Each structure stands twice: as structure tokens, then as C-alpha cells.
Predict the structure.
Amino acid sequence: MSSPVKKPALGGLTVREAMRMQVVGFPGSSSIDTGVRSLIKHKINALLIRDSDESALGVVSKTDVMGAYYASLPIESPLEQIMISPPLFCGPDDSLESALHVMRSRKVYRLYVSGDSSGKAVGILAYPDIVGLLYGYCRSCEQSIVNRRALKLTDDGSLRFRVKEVMTPAVTSFSEDDSLLEIMEGLSVNRFGAVLITDGAGTPSGVISKTDLILAYKHGISADVPARTIVTRAPVRSCDQEDFIEDAIRTMIFSEVHRLFVHRGNPANIVGVFSLSDAARVRSGSCHACVGSRIRIEGPVSS
Amino acid sequence: MFTARDVMTRNFHTLSPDSSVAEAGGAFMKAGEEEQRRIFGMMVTDAEGKLVGMMSMYDILLFIRPKHIQVWGMMDDIDISGLMEEACSRAKSVLVGDIMTTEVITVSPDTAVMVILDLMVKKHIRRVPVVNGEKIEGMVYISDLFHRLVDMLVP
């Protein structure tokens, strides 16, 4: 029997420990085209819109840019036309727990961090930052899969969370013949970041994400074209529902994706989606040893 | 007067904003062979040959750099081949026009060399396109400028 896990309680973590300091911002008069270039170049999901004295006015996320594409807005339009206002803030000394609570209850994927009442953002906190921090703790734990494998210790896996326990057990797919407009409607209704694309035989053939759609917008591709025009025919990035979430999180962080499709048995049989926000629900890590001693796991988000 | 015209190279290569990042990588290598120097930045021109941006080694490195590097920082078993595979698959669908720098500093053939030197130091740039109206005349590289000036220092 291995010894109990010894590490600091994650419950005491604050926003400061997980946040990123680099906030990419633009004046509201900058074009959507400029904004898209920045989203792609910096591999980020949202831009902060600031006024001339650097105060935060609003946020433009990939979802908002996709909305502009859907509405056939000229890509030269100013960002202020599609921004969501005001931005939501948290403080650097707030607990991660409370920040996560705000993100979940307000259904947002990121909070800006403000040091004082000036309205200026000093940092940003999003799901990948939180999951990344938690993963770092898991990684350094003597119970972690990587460390146990390295020491050639056996592990019956009974302590560990598996993907099926935390995934969203539903998947939305579209055919290669469906138009980008239909796909955008599907993404918007289901609040997904990406959908599965299937070929004529119903076999998964690729994925279309919001990033693919905003690139299509930037490349001047009409939103009426069928999905097959832009789908990248790469193998669908998926994991087995029996995989440990520690491994699945690693794959997501590695592959720079926010979700993995989950298969049962074979990769053609997709049964769910495991996203970084699902991973953030397992707040204290990926292993029962850790969770049992501290933090409860929340149920799926009710919408 | 010693101007851009005296230190620029007329032997330059350009990229199209519609090329993929993967194709741009190949163009960097090819231009390097033809210009007989290592190329760390190229001008991006539209169909009419007008300068629309610059693509630098840094832009490509930003693209390859893992996104969640703060998480990887502490790890020593990062599989670089896996990361490169990811970057390669993205490099096919992202275009030069998506990540190039559009705010480009240019000079004219008559700009004084010392003005260019000052620009390069202040703005931390290593190459400056030389344009005459909308026509590209050449490129001033910091290394060429350095060698020309150092030549004069040597007694």
C-alpha cells in the first residue's frame, strides 16, 4: 500500500498563481481583421478592448468573431462593433475557487485580473491556466502516472479518474456537406468550441473549430461553402473513455486543443467530449487520493 | 551622402500573403541559398508587388512555440517531435497573411545611413525595406550596414 499523498492543499490557491500577465489588447477602432491576426499569432482566444487611457472597455472572443462571420459583417469593421461589454474581472488575491465559480455561473471562459479600481487589466485567467496549474501539481506528485511509470511501480488505476467520469457524454457532429453557416449555428447553440465532421458513411473525418472558422473568415471564404472546403483531414484527436484524465489533460495541453473527442473501443465510435473546462471541474487534480482529502467534484454544468 | 542606396541589397526575395506558413519556411531556406546569407526575415508583397507586411523568423518561432509553455517549464520529458508534428499540421492551414507584421518601417533610397542606423537601434530591427513610392528597391540588412561602417573604422 502506498503512502498517502503529501502536498499543499490546492484549495488555498489564488488567482495570482495561475494567471498570465500578458494581456493582448486593442483600441476599439482596430479592425476585426487586425484582431484575427493577433488571435492567430498569439494563439489566444480573446482580445481585450481598451480605451486611450488603457482602461478595459470590453472583450472580443473567437465566438464574437465567428458571430461577425455568420452575420457577414465586413472584416474591416471595427472591433468595438462586436465586443461584449463590460469585461468581467477578478482580483489577484481572490481564491481560484471563487474565480472558477464566477466563470461557471456567468458562463465565461476567462476573467481579467485587476489590481485596483482603475479598470486596467494586469492579467488574465482562463481554463487552460487553471488546468495547467493543477496538472503541474499532479505532475510533481509522487502518485502521478508519469512518476510511477518512471519508477516502474505498478498501479491498478483504482485511485485515478478516468475520462468517462468527467466527460460530456454527448457529441454534436455535422456532415461534410453541411455549410459553414449551419456549423456556426450548431457551435453557437451548443456553446461548443468545435464540432466533429463525418463523411458520407458517418465515419469521423475531421474537426472544425472556431479557429478554423475565423481563419476562413479572414481568408475571404464564403460562409455558404460546405464543411469539406475547410476541414483539415487530420485524424480526429481523441482519447478512449477509459483513459486516465491525467493523460488526456497532457495530450490537450501538448496539442494546444481545448477538447478531445472521446471514443469507446475504437476511434470511429465517438461517444463524448472531454474539454479543459470539464477538466477544471475536477478541481484538485486527477486522482481520488488527492480529491478525497480536499475538494469535492462538481456535477456537470446544468444549462 | 552615404544613403540606403549604398548599403541595400537589390537581390531580395518576397513572400505572398496567401502562402501557407509551411511554404514560407521553404521560401526562407531557398532565399537563403540564392542570396548566400541566412535569411531571418522577408518582405510580403501583394499581386501588384506592393509591400504589405514583413514575416520574420520570430513570427514563425512564435507560431511553433508551445502555447502552454508555463506548464511545460518544469518538465524534462517533453517530446519535441510531438510538438513539431502539431506545429507542422497547423502550418499548412495558417497563411503568411495571418501572422505577418503589417506595421512595417521602411526607408527611401535617399535616407541617410546614420538615420537607418538610428532606426535599427531604437526599434530593434535588423532589416529595413527600401521603397521608392510603392516600388520596392531593396533591403538594408543590419549586418551589411555594420560591415560597411566597420570598414571605415579600420585604419
Q: What stands out?
A: The longest strand of chain A covers residues 56-61. Chain A has twelve helices and twelve strands.
